[in-house]
């Protein structure tokens, strides 16, 4: 065995030890060395520093170092050589990197029904470029300074006009705030609400799981409230003791339910009665294929509702452009929170988007995309009916995803695994439940072609029949 690469000089092994920690020093040393070996930072056959030298270097007794080395030898990370020196075991070096590479070799599924991807290949580059040009030619220097936390007046005006026209909101530019997607808008909002004394957030069950974590990090308690075919179960909301609720009323994620007029009225009555707040995540309302979308709840009760919108489904998630319509009482705190967080969203992007909307390009883009997504949805639903008729889609014809329940003889884990073996990505409902619920699948189709959708469902049918054989 070669002893050519050495690492024996004092100060060569950087391991951070926390003497105030309750974890014993030999364990801290072990895990420091183990991590470096796994990450490939200590490579195969590297000779470890002599125990006495390392002990002096780190201010430890030699016994602590000996104990750590012995443990790592026992685990197979180090090899003890005759001659009294210790080397990094070749089999262990860089295993994390190898695991990652192996994962990448396996690669992403050939056809992937992962949700949340719109077709970014259709991004309206030419029209966006025209707006960039105009904006760069016309933007006065003063607009390039730090701005109001709510964002540029131009975008707030364009968006307020657009949303009032298309979504039936009651937005005034001064009540709007531009943020980096729903992710930032909802995080800041939940932080501001927690600071203002709100305590318990009700979320739809099932729903987007990331939000619950954000709520808990903000100091709120998150509770699940069931979703019915007519939207959130407002009687269960009443019992939940929540003082704020998050709803995807126009197209519930992931079930696809639409809140009925009665549910929307009951939500507003609940908020009024308890002085509570409704957060309306209107993430994909622009895509409704069989009839006009229902108007936003915000338009019915602007002082009870925070409306949240995003360009992530309509244009591209990478734009990181989102917006909130706020009740008057939250405007100042939210504007301050946005300034504290990042000093405001990038001005050029906001001004470009403002011009893009004002020129009618946003409407044009949506008119072009709607029939494309509708064809994809029809292909998906049609092929499911032919090939796997017991996976019945639920929810309205809208958005960029479809959900089905799974028959009782199929588990999500088995179906997703059998699909992956065929190069197909399908995804279960499990992560979206607050309180565990029945199995289901959520299919995102936004970024696929029609033939991929059809082939994907054929692969799924094959996967399911293999499980049933
Ligand atoms: C329910 C829901 N709301 C909002 C969003 C948009 O988030 P963002 O604007 O941060 O991209 C998503 C994205 O997938 C979503 O699933």
Number of structural domains: 3
Major sheet, described briefly?
A: 8 strands, mixed
Number of strands: 16
Determine the number of helices (DSSP H or I, runs of at least 4 residues): 15
Low-confidence stretches: 6-10
Q: Structural class, from helix and strand content?
A: alpha/beta
Radius of gyration: 28 Å
**Bound ligand species:** pyridoxal-5'-phosphate
CATH superfamily of the largest domain: Type I PLP-dependent aspartate aminotransferase-like (Major domain)
Amount of helix: 40-55%
CATH class label of the largest domain? Alpha Beta
Cα end-to-end separation: 52 Å
Q: In the CATH hierarchy, what is the architecture of the largest domain at level 2?
A: 3-Layer(aba) Sandwich
| Proportion of residues in β-strands | 5-15%
Under CATH, the topology of the largest domain is which? Aspartate Aminotransferase, domain 2
Instruction: Tell me, rounded to a whole number, the average pLDDT.
Output: 92
Strands in their spatial order, largest beta sheet = 4-11-10-9-8-5-6-7
Shape: globular
Keywords: Aminotransferase, DNA-binding, Pyridoxal phosphate, Transcription, Transcription regulation, Transferase
Organism: Kribbella qitaiheensis
Domain HTH gntR-type: 23-91
InterPro entries: Aminotransferase_I/II_large, HTH_trans_reg/aminotransferase, PyrdxlP-dep_Trfase, PyrdxlP-dep_Trfase_major, Tscrpt_reg_HTH_GntR, WH-like_DNA-bd_sf, WH_DNA-bd_sf
């Amino acid at each position: 065995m070669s002893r050519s690469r050495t690492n024996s000089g004092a100060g060569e092994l950087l391991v951070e030890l926390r003497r105030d920690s309750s974890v014993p020093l030999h364990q801290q040393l072990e895990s420091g060395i183990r991590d470096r070996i796994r990450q490939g930072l200590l490579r195969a056959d590297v000779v470890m520093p002599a125990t006495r030298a390392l002990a002096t270097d780190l201010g430890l007794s030699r016994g602590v170092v000996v104990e750590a080395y012995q443990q790592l030898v026992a685990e197979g990370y180090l090899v003890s050589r005759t001659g009294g020196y210790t080397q990094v075991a070749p089999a262990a070096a860089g295993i994390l990197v190898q695991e990652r590479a192996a994962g990448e070799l396996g690669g992403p599924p050939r056809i992937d029904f992962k949700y949340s991807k719109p077709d970014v290949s259709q991004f309206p580059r030419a029209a966006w470029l025209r707006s960039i040009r105009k904006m760069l030619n016309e933007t006065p220097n003063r607009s390039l300074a730090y701005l109001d936390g709510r964002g540029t007046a131009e975008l707030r005006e364009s968006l307020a006009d657009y949303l009032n026209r298309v979504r039936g909101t009651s937005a005034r530019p001064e009540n709007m705030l531009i943020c980096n997607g729903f992710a930032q808008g909802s995080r800041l909002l939940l932080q501001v609400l927690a600071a203002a004394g709100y305590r318990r957030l009700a979320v739809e069950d099932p729903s987007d799981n990331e939000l619950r974590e954000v709520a808990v990090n903000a100091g709120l308690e998150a509770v699940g409230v069931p979703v019915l075919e007519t939207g959130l179960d407002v009687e269960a909301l009443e019992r939940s003791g929540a003082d704020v609720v998050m709803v995807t009323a126009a197209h519930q994620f992931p079930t696809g339910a639409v809140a009925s007029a009665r549910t929307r009225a009951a939500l507003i009555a609940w908020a009024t009665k308890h002085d509570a707040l409704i957060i309306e995540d209107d993430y994909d309302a622009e895509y409704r294929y069989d009839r006009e979308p229902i108007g936003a709840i915000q338009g019915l009760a602007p002082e009870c509702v925070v409306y949240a919108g995003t360009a992530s489904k309509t244009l591209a998630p990478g734009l990181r452009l989102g917006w909130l319509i706020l009740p008057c009482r939250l405007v100042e705190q939210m504007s301050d929170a946005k300034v504290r967080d990042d000093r405001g969203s990038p001005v050029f992007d906001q001004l470009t988007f403002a011009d893009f909307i004002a020129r009618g390009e946003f409407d044009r883009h949506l008119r072009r995309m709607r029939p494309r997504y509708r064809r994809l949805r029809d292909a998906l639903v049609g092929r499911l009916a032919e090939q796997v008729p017991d996976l019945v889609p639920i929810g309205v014809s809208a958005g960029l995803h479809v959900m089905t329940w799974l028959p009782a003889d199929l588990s999500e884990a088995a179906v997703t695994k059998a699909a992956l073996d065929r190069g197909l990505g399908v995804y279960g409902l499990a992560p979206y439940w607050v309180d565990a619920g029945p199995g289901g699948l959520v299919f995102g189709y936004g970024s696929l072609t029609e033939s991929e959708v059809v082939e994907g469902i054929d692969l799924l049918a094959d996967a399911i029949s293999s499980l049933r054989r």
